[in-house]
Amino acid sequence: MSENTVKTEAGARDELHGVGVSPGRVIAPLVHMAPAVSEPPEGDPLEGDPEAATDRLKAAALAVKAGLKERAARARSESAAEVLKATALMAGDKALVKNAGKLVTEQGLSPERALWQAATAYADQMRAMGGYMAERAADIEDVRARIVAELRGEDAPGVPQRREPFVLAAEDLAPADTAVLDPDVVIALVTQSGGPQSHTAILARNLGLPAVVAVDGVLDVAGGASVFVDGATGTVVVAPGDAERDAVLAWQRASEQLASFDGGGVLSDGTAVPLLANVGTGDDARAAAEAGAEGVGLLRTEFCFLGRDSEPTVDEQADAYAEVFEAFPGRKVVVRTLDAGADKPLPFLTDATEPNPALGVRGYRTDWTTPGVLERQLEAIGVAQQRSTAEVWVMAPMIATVEEAARFHDLVVAAGLRVGGVMVETPAAAITAEQILERVDFVSLGTNDLTQYTMAADRMLGSLAELNSPWQPAVLRMIRATAQGAAAATELGGAHKHVGVCGEAAADPALAVVLVGLGVDTLSMSPRSLAAVAAVLRGVDLAEARRLAELAVHATSAHEAKDTVRAQLPVLAELGL
Ligand code: PEP
Ligand code: MG
């Protein structure tokens, strides 16, 4: 465990700073992510009795199996439970333990080495079979690491299992780590790298966990040290004192106040600002409906495709989409067509060897290289729409030209879908919004990508977090250009051209005010953020939102924009946001 990598003196107060990506304040012991399990040396000899060693092997495999099953029973989603149950089955595979036992008794290897070797042979065989079996090879390697860690008395790799709540510190988190994370035990996340728009940050907001990324030095903090984490300001304090304890209490009081969201997104003058949810699955959608979301502003359909090495059938897709629609009868659900590529690669669609995947064949562009997938997806959305009363809108990600937008709209119409729009995630789309909106029904600003492309700063990089802020005045100008384009297109065509925001910017309550002031109609976010955004919007009228938007656009830096706006919204401090 990295408790050994201690550089800070135990008990000494220290303050670290990063980028706050999900609000909340907690104090708890810090636990480091367990490092990868090292391979036992080749030929590592058995010490002691072979029979006792094989018994230890069996016991370790059973303990791993039992631990995984227990976690599956506590998993927060069906998909996480399935992953854990499948891994538990592999850990309990008798053939694996038997083969390893033979290596102990016949070749005199240590149980750690024997298990490692037997599991590796198993994984290699599966890889050679190709297809689905090859994908399971990584799961065998995961089981291998877990059993070896158990034999050594170490933490299994990944998120350490504890019963008491803790703050998890890591270099960065992989989606697989976060998928099975228990938010009752892991109560905050602090990473050394990772950007504010990374999918880990998005997940933290989904789970409602305070999170700070790009915290230089967090890996040097002693494991077990008490730390204070403020996910709004990005502050991490080692050995916190009374001030931090008071801040945690204030946050607890404020979150009680924010606990109820009545579904109403409205300004103080009565202007409605519908607040929608970003979801990926039926589970998410049901939780969003329960949290009071008025509808779905972004259904990330790639979640239906992730982990697949072939395209799901039209029926499979239709079932997945229908599950989301069912959660919002009569309500708006904006479905985004597949956004594969960059940080969300798909083996059957994207080219893993591209030198710059974020600038490569991703999103809508995969239709150029793999035609047919998009049409079949639109067909599936149409089938799901037939089965529900939800008001289904469809949009394409990563649009850069008017032609692309027009062609996508044609495909939407051809599929019998009623409302077709595109995401504005590139500066090209933002500055041609008027022409785009003459051809499509609506746009939705994907501020995560729009920020990375406007600022030419990879959204995954913690070192560029400063540039990668949607508060950057250049990004705000892109948003304003989009809203102005929509207003011009509305005037020209008569029908209202709707502008939504579905990037993480919408979940920042102060920025939400600015977005409304810039002319955005609806905001879509992770359901956890709805109450805070609603509470702040209720305190301003449209004229004030416009005034604050002007101030932000004319600031000379992201910091200045943010600080100026926040200073004029005292409700933020009152609510601990
Ligand atoms: C965005 O880019 O803002 C967006 C909503 O899409 P994603 O985060 O899935 O890339
Ligand atoms: Mg995007």
TrEMBL record:
**Where on the tree of life does the source sit, at the highest rank?**
Bacteria
A Gene Ontology cellular-component term: cytoplasm
**What reaction gets catalysed by this protein?**
L-histidyl-[protein] + phosphoenolpyruvate = N(pros)-phospho-L-histidyl-[protein] + pyruvate
Keywords attached to this Swiss-Prot or TrEMBL record, sorted alphabetically, are: Cytoplasm, Kinase, Magnesium, Metal-binding, Phosphotransferase system, Pyruvate, Sugar transport, Transferase, Transport
GO molecular-function annotation terms?
A: kinase activity; metal ion binding; phosphoenolpyruvate-protein phosphotransferase activity
Record domain PEP-utilising enzyme mobile: where: 164-234
For Mg(2+), which residues are the binding ones? E425, D449
What is the required cofactor set for this protein? Mg(2+)
Broadest EC class assigned to this enzyme: transferase
As for subcellular location, the record says: Cytoplasm
Q: What is its main location?
A: cytoplasm
Q: Which Gene3D superfamilies match?
A: Phosphoenolpyruvate-binding domains, Phosphohistidine domain, PtsI, HPr-binding domain
Q: Where is the PEP-utilising enzyme C-terminal domain?
A: 266-540
* Region (Disordered) location: 1-20
GO BP term, example: phosphoenolpyruvate-dependent sugar phosphotransferase system
> Which SUPFAM superfamilies does this chain map to?
Enzyme I of the PEP:sugar phosphotransferase system HPr-binding (sub)domain, Phosphoenolpyruvate/pyruvate domain, Phosphohistidine domain
Residues holding phosphoenolpyruvate = R300, R336, N448, D449, R459
EC no. given is 2.7.3.9
- The catalytic site is made up of H199, C502
**Any Pfam family:** PEP-utilizers
The family line of this record is:
Belongs to the PEP-utilizing enzyme family.
Q: Tell me, what does this protein do in biology?
A: General (non sugar-specific) component of the phosphoenolpyruvate-dependent sugar phosphotransferase system (sugar PTS). This major carbohydrate active-transport system catalyzes the phosphorylation of incoming sugar substrates concomitantly with their translocation across the cell membrane. Enzyme I transfers the phosphoryl group from phosphoenolpyruvate (PEP) to the phosphoryl carrier protein (HPr).
Protein's recorded name: Phosphoenolpyruvate-protein phosphotransferase
Species of origin reads: Kocuria varians
